[in-house]
Specification:
The chain is mostly beta strands. The chain is about 5% helix and about 45% strand. The protein contains 1 helix and 16 strands. A hairpin with a 2-residue loop joins strand 7 and strand 8. The radius of gyration is 29 Å and the shape is elongated. About 5% of the residues have low confidence.
Length: about 220
C-alpha cells in the first residue's frame, strides 16, 4: 500500500525585503525587523565573564545595538551622585586608607597632608578652591580661617599607594586639628566635588582621621 505523506506549510506574517527579514511588517529596515513583542525564555548570567563586554541597548524606535560595558559604567559613574566617608583612629596617617569618589582617590599622607590621585592612574591638571578652618574646641572651628581660590595641581600617571607621581598634595600647610574643605573640578566634566579633610586629636598620641567626598 502506498504511503501518503502530508506536508503542512504554516504561513506566518513574514516578509523578505532585499536582505532584511520582517515579522509582522512588509518593510523591514534591519536584518531582522520584528513588529511586536520579543520573548527569550532562557538567559545565562554572564556578569562575571569578561568575554561578555557589551550591553544591549535600544532607542525609541526599538532598534537594538550594543554599548561597551566599560564605557557604560564610566558614564553611570560620571552621572551618579556620590557620598563617601572614611574615619579611622591612628597615631599617624595610613596611606592605604583611601576614599575613591568619582574620578578621584583621596587620602591622608604623613604630615599629615591631604592628597589626591586619579582612579584611572592617568595624568591631568585639576583646579580647586580650598577653605581652611582652625580648630577651636571639640565641636567648632574659628580663628585664622582662610580661602584660597584658583589653586591647581598636576596629577602624574601612576597607580598604587606608593606612587610618588600619582599622589599629589592638595595643602602642604595642613596641620593636625585643622579642617580643609575643597571644591574640585575635573577638566571637561560637569561634576563638582566637595571634599573635607579633618585630622583631630583623639588622645595625646592618637588622632581621628576623617575624609568626606560629595560628588554632585
Amino acid at each position: 500500500m502506498g504511503k501518503i505523506i502530508f506536508i503542512s506549510i504554516v504561513f506566518f506574517s513574514t516578509s523578505i525585503y532585499g536582505q532584511n527579514v520582517g515579522i509582522n511588517t512588509n518593510s523591514p529596515t534591519r536584518a531582522l525587523d520584528v513588529n511586536g513583542d520579543l520573548r527569550v525564555r532562557t538567559l545565562t548570567d554572564k556578569s562575571t565573564d569578561a568575554a561578555y563586554n557589551n550591553v544591549i541597548v535600544a532607542n525609541t524606535n526599538g532598534e537594538f545595538d550594543k554599548w561597551d560595558k566599560a564605557s557604560l559604567l564610566s558614564t553611570i559613574q560620571t552621572l551618579a551622585v556620590e557620598n563617601k566617608k572614611l574615619t579611622y583612629v591612628s597615631n599617624s596617617p595610613n596611606i592605604g586608607n583611601t576614599v575613591d569618589c568619582g574620578k578621584f582617590s583621596f587620602r591622608f599622607n604623613t604630615g599629615p597632608v591631604p592628597q589626591i590621585k586619579l582612579v584611572s592612574g592617568n595624568s591631568t591638571t585639576i583646579y580647586y578652591t580650598i577653605i581652611h578652618r582652625v580648630n577651636k574646641s571639640t565641636d567648632s572651628f574659628s580663628g585664622t580661617n582662610t580661602l584660597a581660590s584658583g589653586q591647581l595641581v598636576t596629577i602624574g600617571s601612576g597607580t598604587g599607594n606608593n606612587s610618588t607621581t600619582g599622589w599629589q598634595t592638595l595643602d602642604a600647610t595642613y596641620a593636625n586639628n585643622g579642617l580643609d574643605e575643597l571644591y574640585i573640578t575635573y577638566p571637561g566634566d560637569n561634576n563638582l566635588y566637595r571634599v573635607t579633610f579633618l585630622a583631630r586629636n583623639s588622645s595625646a598620641t592618637q588622632y581621628f582621621y576623617t575624609m568626606i567626598c560629595e560628588k554632585f
